[in-house]
Amino acid sequence: MFEPESLKSILTWEQQRQMLDEMKEVASSTNQASGGLLEMKKTVAAFYVFQCYLLEFGTKFNAEQAVAWLSKASSDDDSHEDQDYFSQAWLWRISRALGIQTDISTDTLESLLNLSVIRGHRTCLQDMLELMAINSGPERQRWWNSFQQFRNILQSQMGAVGMGYFFSNYMTRPWNTTSLNITTELDESIRIRLGSDYDSCVKSSVSSGQESSTQKGRDKDRTAFDRIYVNQRGHGLLHYAAAAGATNALRHMITKYECDVNIPNQHVDESPLVCACEGGKVDCALVLLENGADPNGYRFGQEGPLHWLCSFLPNEMETIASRLVRAGADIELRSGGMRHDVRGIRADWEHIFEIRTTPLGRAVLMNNINAVKVLLKLGANPLTKHASKHRGEWEGMKDFSKMIDVSSPFELAAVLTLPDILAEFIKHIDSPSGIPRLKLLDEWSMLDLAHAKKVTEFDPVSLQSRLVRCGINYKRNMRATLVLLHARDLPVRGSSGDELQKERSRVLCKEVSLGNLDVVEALLELGYSSNGTQDFRPLEKAVETNHEEMFKLLVRYRVDMTVTLMTPTGGISMLHVCALRPQHSRPGRAIADALIAAGVPIESADPRSRPPLAMAIMNQNFDVAQALLENGANVDAIYPLPSTTVDGTETKAVSVLVEVLSQHTMRTLASLKFLFGKREGGPSQRPAFHIDPTNKFSILHLLAGSPQFTQIAQITPKILNLCIETFAEPELINYRHPLLGTALYYAATCGHKTMVELLLQHGADETHNSGPDVDGSVQTLLRSRESWAPLWAAILRFDDELKKGTYFPPEGPPGAWLNSNLIQNSEKTLGLLSGRSNDALSKQAVDQLQKRKKSLETESYAWQKERVRKRREFKAREDEAPINLGILSDDGGKDDEVKIREICEGPEQEWKTGGLEWLLKSLTLSH
User: Fold this and answer.
1) What would the pLDDT profile of 295-320 be if each residue is shown by its tens digit?
2) Model pTM?
3) Keywords in UniProt for this one (predicted)?
């Protein structure tokens, strides 16, 4: 399952873009399924591309592209993935909400909406009514007819949820052809199905039909009639008749046959009364109530009858709801929380049927204000967070809770942005005076609830959720909801000014970071400060995500772009934030340009902070770095860089080039290419050769003495080669540090084989002129000037390493250090330099060192050989020695030896019978 909203914060923008391109390729393929990296159908891939453009995954929001790909996703009538069904159900609704025209014909649109209604997408019924409202004449009548016809199919045959319980294709024989309207045909089918049990299922007299068909506290024993199932989901004949609205057939079967009117189906424990209410069949529901049906449904069912009040027409709701309540229906009854994957309602993409709530809460989830008004009139509590369990769940059981936690109807209406229902709740709560006395949910608490998914399974404030639920009103509903909650909270607000501003700023920052442009605009209109507070700066989040439209919105509300933030390493500006933006943010330099134009300093005002340019290069935000360079940023600026050492934290003054080279990764390579002008936007001049002018320390010396080395993908050699090529002039290659000598001499001193090799390839001086400046030094009395060549530096290095290993061997087997990278690099460095020298004395020194190493290797081999010999001798003695059983006890007595042998031989096997003993012997399994 592709979840762009969660992946956005995990994958880099480039990775997102690559995924988007891959899905586009699949969706545009001439084959139905792709054989590339993504194995999916074309229409599924197109749906995912639609989500990318809608939710800004690897691309900026683009309404036209989103609708175009959604249209493509809805084009295959023969594909039956969930994404196909979603796209077909949402196409008209979302395109209209986003203001994008589609070339879909009326006939095709009608077909898509009809199919979608059958599949359980109730919002398509709203679409039909909207299409009826915007048309006139025959077209208006056409949509009204479709609405009535397919609403009836949904509720009568598809269980009101898009599952074909009573659709003829999914019903078993003979019920898929038996008419409920012809009593004689129905009875004959029942007679054939029951066979010899038929007579036992026929009631003896009419009076028995007036008796209650259930007993409280337990289920009635099932008859053969009760065990008749019309489909594979385990619905019986009473469920079928109730859902279909076959009132006469239902009354006839209850009167004539021994049956349980409360019998649950085998799928989700729905009683016939629940099926009647799902189907919106008033007469059938009344018949069942008259015959003793439990007004709360089956005790383990997922919903009670009142949870399906929205299935009735507005003029029927009060009649059936009042009758249910008079019969004992609990108006605060809980709904179940069966998992989406178990219940299997494919249209329920936001898992609303998993939400435990009261009938009033379900009416909110179904966005049915008529059902809400009826339930409020009957006493439903919009604020309750506790619902009643079914009486059958707790009656007769001690210390068993009668209540269960549920989602409050008021909170549901708020997070689902249903302002009409919310206004009805507020009016009901504040009546009769209309004066607010009770503190309710405020606007920022609502947004917190929504994003935390505390009352719903998904975030209902996300753009996709609001578009599908609210359609063309997705912005209006959000704004109206926030205004309602804000206005209602004003008279009872208890928070102090500073505390309130802090909470408001926190919530505004959250919405900015989520990219909810219309939500942010609505909050700003309510008086939220665009500048936020010291702890929460909305501008920081807009810059961090590089959201240009959000940035422009905040600027329009007079945000201060020069504001600074305090961090543990010093104060930073918004340009620092821009330079530090994470890799999953959008690319682009427009915000950086706007900040620079607004007068935000190019360099750090606080000397403790790294410059914005250094941050941009280190974080690979090269577009921001380019903007800074074009406006005069100093690529050689020196700044403090804290680093952790064995002695604690140490701060060094470095340039960005030095910090880049402190790690050897692929990112290092990319940053160096930018710094050296080998990619677009880099500086016009390379960084300074001397990274520490005071100490005359060059970049090549830094590399020569660097302990960094990464073998993966040969990254280090690539980094070294790139740097040497950038500073390849002979005077730079052979630059002589007064104490360290040239880079070649220093690399030889450090045993840096790769650096020695590359410098030699670039013509580095190998003579004594490359050594340190010893003129006037007393060292010339001890060593001749010619011995200060790189070769002798390598000789001394190798000699030192051999001595250290000999006198201070590291942990591990003796001689193992001879194979370490340190020794091997020193030896290879020596080989590179000695092969190019004619110095007889140095050759003699090299031979002597090689002999010493050979001698050490011989000693190591002899030690290992002796160790192996001793181990083999010990093993041989161990194998030959008899086991002394006496060692297992203190005295080693004879009695203990006997006991131990009994244990080894095992107890007498009394369980073996004669026949089994013979069988085991024949199988050679017994001794």
Assistant:
1) 999 998 999 999 999 999 999 999 99
2) 0.85
3) ANK repeat, Repeat
